[in-house]
Automatic annotation (TrEMBL):
<dbReference type="GO" id="GO:0009086">
    <property type="term" value="P:methionine biosynthetic process"/>
</dbReference>
<dbReference type="GO" id="GO:0071949">
    <property type="term" value="F:FAD binding"/>
</dbReference>
<dbReference type="InterPro" id="IPR003171">
    <property type="entry name" value="Mehydrof_redctse-like"/>
</dbReference>
<keyword id="KW-0285">Flavoprotein</keyword>
<dbReference type="GO" id="GO:0005829">
    <property type="term" value="C:cytosol"/>
</dbReference>
<comment type="pathway">
    <text>Amino-acid biosynthesis; L-methionine biosynthesis via de novo pathway.</text>
</comment>
<dbReference type="InterPro" id="IPR029041">
    <property type="entry name" value="FAD-linked_oxidoreductase-like"/>
</dbReference>
<keyword id="KW-0274">FAD</keyword>
<dbReference type="Pfam" id="PF02219">
    <property type="entry name" value="MTHFR"/>
</dbReference>
<protein>
    <recommendedName>
        <fullName>Methylenetetrahydrofolate reductase</fullName>
    </recommendedName>
</protein>
<dbReference type="GO" id="GO:0035999">
    <property type="term" value="P:tetrahydrofolate interconversion"/>
</dbReference>
<comment type="similarity">
    <text>Belongs to the methylenetetrahydrofolate reductase family.</text>
</comment>
<comment type="pathway">
    <text>One-carbon metabolism; tetrahydrofolate interconversion.</text>
</comment>
<dbReference type="GO" id="GO:0106312">
    <property type="term" value="F:methylenetetrahydrofolate reductase (NADH) activity"/>
</dbReference>
<keyword id="KW-0560">Oxidoreductase</keyword>
Length: 283
């Protein structure tokens, strides 16, 4: 089982509201851990920059989300990046189209952010882009595949490192199959598998519905939970055991975890700390 390798170098996703909990738990995180910062509807650029600056002061690596469809102009993107760079010295960003049905400005997708040339001009050297092991409810599979290939090519031509961060999901075999498909297509980039931290079944179902993620009774049973026990707590241990086995069978070494703390940041950090401490230092 590829347990030790999977549990090292994990990343964590926070919202502005999680900052207090992050401060309280920062000593449990390895120095330099990547902290992705969700850009929630209603957040302002200044809010995101302040959170990123706080993350940096904790000795962690801020990875702000840049939501293409919410940017109104080239000037706004430049200001956004200038602020993040000036306040938090950002080197990394996660580029996402955004859930808006229509863009507010010139950027309809993550590719157009890469092609703007503004990322490397503001000190960004590594980007994250989204991956969808289950597909996306509104975007056809061939469109997703072409978009990923285009983003990889554009990043490479600009000298930007790229990693793929998946939407969270509950089915380890879907994840492993998808990683194998990517590798068969010659895509060897690091994949960060999106996984929910410990949370109630109710919270998991709420986020799954909001994000278009499959949570059928069958999938959730495999994950280790029953949909009739909504208040029960669910952890990703079973998913990770299965995923670790499948990745080890495939000889896969370049997959890491990206944790979504849907049950609260403290709970997720403490769980991850215990999990990583128990993992044998192999691979
Ligand atoms: N995986 C994640 O963690 C998150 C995913 N999302 C949602 O996933 C979707 C795709 O984002 P990316 O992977 O960055 O795609 P992308 O920027 O690589 O675009 C891929 C293709 O899908 C189209 N597209 C993108 N967003 C769309 C939308 N909201 N409605 C209809 N067509 C859309 C684009 O025009 C493009 O042709 C977006 O709706 C995004 O908001 C949002 C937040 C987080
Ligand atoms: N399609 C899609 N859209 C998204 O916005 C999205 C994804 N996928 N995948 C995962 C990430 C993680 N996202 C989020 C969104 C909200 C909170 C959050 O904490 N929201 C509320 C609590 C709402 C609740 O409890 O239901 C908050 O307090 O702001 C966290 C992560 C958004 N994300």
């Amino acid at each position: 089982m590829d347990w030790g390798n999977l549990s090292r170098d994990f990343s964590l996703e926070i919202t502005r509201k999680d900052l207090g909990d992050l401060v309280d738990n920062a000593t449990l995180l390895p120095a330099g851990s990547a902290i992705s910062i969700t850009y929630l509807p209603g957040d302002r650029i200044e809010d995101l920059a302040q959170v990123a600056a706080s993350v940096r002061r904790l000795g962690l690596e801020p990875v702000p989300h840049i939501s293409a469809r919410r940017i109104r102009s080239d000037e706004e993107l430049a200001r956004f990046l200038r602020t993040l760079s000036g306040e938090a010295g950002i080197r990394r960003a996660f580029l996402i189209a955004g859930d808006l049905a229509e863009p507010l400005g010139p950027y309809a997708d993550a590719l157009s952010l890469v092609e703007s040339g503004l990322l490397e001009a503001h000190g960004i050297t590594r980007i994250g882009v989204a991956g969808y092991p289950e597909g996306h409810p509104a975007i056809p599979e061939d469109v997703l595949r072409a978009a990923l290939a285009d983003k990889i090519a554009a990043a490479a031509s600009r000298g930007l490192d790229l990693e793929i961060v998946t939407q969270f999901l509950f089915d380890a075999d879907r994840i492993a199959d998808w990683v194998c498909t990517l590798r068969a297509q010659g895509i060897r980039h690091r994949v960060r598998v999106g996984v929910a931290g410990p949370a109630s079944v109710q919270a998991l179902l709420r986020y799954a519905a909001r994000c278009g993620v499959g949570a059928s009774a069958k999938v959730m049973a495999k994950y280790g939970v029953s949909l009739t026990r909504l208040l029960a707590q669910a952890t990703p241990d079973r998913l990770l055991t299965r995923l670790g086995e499948r990745l080890a069978d495939a000889g896969e070494q370049n997959v890491k975890l990206h944790l979504y703390p849907f049950g609260g940041l403290s709970k997720t950090v403490r769980w991850m700390h215990a999990y990583a401490a128990a993992a044998p230092a192999i691979a």
